[in-house]
Write a structure and sequence with these properties.
By secondary structure, the chain is an alpha+beta fold. Helix content is 43%, strand content 11%. A 5-stranded mixed β-sheet has the order 2-3-1-4-5. Helix 7 links the parallel strand 4 and strand 5. The longest helix has 17 residues. The two termini are 44 Å apart.
Length: 299
C-alpha cells in the first residue's frame, strides 16, 4: 500500500500538492484499503480495453472510462480543482529539508506572521513545508532566532510546477529529495532555486551548488531584493542590471554617473551604502534571480 509520502510524490502540480496535504492533515484522504467502501483490487495491466489508474498506475479506476482514476486520485484531482488551491499554488514556495533535527516552527505547526499552506514531517530528519513566497523571509528570520545555533543540513527551496505533465511537481520533488545528501550534516546550507526548472538542469544545479548560502546570507539577499523592489522602479532595476553587464571602463563610468543623477536621493544613498557599483555581474544575477520570492501577490 502507498504511504502518505508516496501520495505526496504523485502530485503533478502545486494545486494537487496543497490539496493532498490538506486532506492528509484532516485525515480526509480516502486511502484504497481493502476495508474501505468501494475498494477495488490493484489495477489491471495496461491493455487495449483495460488499464490501471492513469495517475498512480497502481489501483483500479473507479470506472473503466475517462478520466481512468482510482478513488484516492479522483478525490485529490477534484479537490485540487478548487479555485483557492490553484490560486495559492501560484503564490507558494516549497521547502524540503534534510536536517539534523526538525525545527521548532515545523513541529508547532504554525509560525507568527507566517501562513503555512501545508506541511508534512516525514521522519526526524526530513520535512516538507509550503508557504507563501512573501512569507519566506519572515520564516527564515524565525528559523535564525529559534534554531540557527543547533541546525545543520540542507534546505531546498523552489516554486512548485504548475503543469500536470511528467516534468511537473512529481519529478521536481523526487529530484530535490535525491539531491539532499543526508551525510553532509557539518553545516547548515540553503539552495534558493528561483525557477522550478533549475532543479532539472545540471548546469543550473552546479551553479547553485557553488553558492551554498548560509542562513544569514539568504536573509541578507532577500532583504536586498526587498529594498531594491521598494526603492527602484522597474525601469531603474533593468538599467542597474545593464550597468552591471558593462565592462569596467570610461563608458561604464559615464553611464553610471548619468544613472545616479536621474534617481532619487534615497536610491543614491542606497547605492552608496551597499557599494553596488563594485558588485560583480554574478552577484547581480543572483540578486535578480531571487526577485520572484519577494513578490506580494495580495497587494
Amino acid at each position: 500500500m502507498l504511504t502518505s509520502f508516496d501520495w505526496i510524490r504523485r502530485c503533478r502540480s502545486g494545486a494537487e500538492l496543497l490539496a493532498t496535504l490538506a486532506l492528509l492533515e484532516t485525515n480526509s484522504l480516502n486511502f484504497p484499503y481493502p476495508s474501505s467502501p468501494g475498494y477495488k483490487s490493484l489495477g489491471p495491466p495496461l491493455t487495449l480495453c483495460e488499464r490501471p489508474c492513469r495517475r498512480c498506475w497502481i489501483y483500479a479506476p473507479v470506472k473503466l472510462e475517462p478520466p481512468w482514476l482510482c478513488q484516492t486520485c479522483m478525490q485529490v484531482v477534484t479537490e485540487s480543482g478548487e479555485r483557492h488551491w490553484r490560486r495559492a499554488s501560484t503564490q507558494s514556495v516549497v521547502v524540503w529539508g534534510t536536517v539534523n533535527h526538525i525545527p521548532k516552527t515545523i513541529l508547532a505547526g504554525q509560525s507568527s506572521g507566517v501562513e503555512v499552506l501545508g506541511r508534512h514531517v516525514y521522519d526526524s530528519n526530513h520535512f516538507l513545508l509550503i508557504l507563501y513566497r512573501k512569507d519566506l523571509l519572515t520564516w527564515l528570520k524565525e528559523l535564525a532566532i529559534y534554531d540557527s545555533d543547533r541546525l545543520a543540513g540542507l534546505l531546498q527551496i523552489f516554486p512548485p510546477a504548475q503543469d500536470r505533465h511528467e516534468a511537473g511537481f512529481a519529478s521536481l520533488f523526487s529530484l530535490a529529495v535525491a539531491l539532499n545528501d543526508p551525510h553532509q550534516m557539518d553545516q547548515f546550507r540553503i539552495h534558493l532555486h528561483p525557477r522550478p526548472y533549475y532543479l532539472l538542469q545540471s548546469k543550473m544545479r552546479k551553479q547553485l551548488d557553488s553558492r551554498n548560502l548560509s542562513l544569514t546570507e539568504s536573509i541578507q539577499l532577500l532583504e536586498m531584493v526587498k529594498a531594491i523592489r521598494s526603492i527602484f522602479g522597474p525601469r531603474e532595476q533593468e538599467q542597474l542590471l545593464d550597468l552591471a553587464r558593462m565592462n569596467v571602463g570610461q563608458e561604464r563610468q559615464f553611464y553610471w554617473g548619468r544613472f545616479v543623477g536621474n534617481i532619487s536621493p534615497e536610491a543614491r544613498n542606497f547605492l552608496e551604502i551597499w557599494q553596488l557599483r563594485h558588485w560583480s555581474l554574478e552577484r547581480f544575477k543572483l540578486l535578480y534571480d531571487l526577485k520572484p520570492y519577494m513578490v506580494d501577490f495580495t497587494s
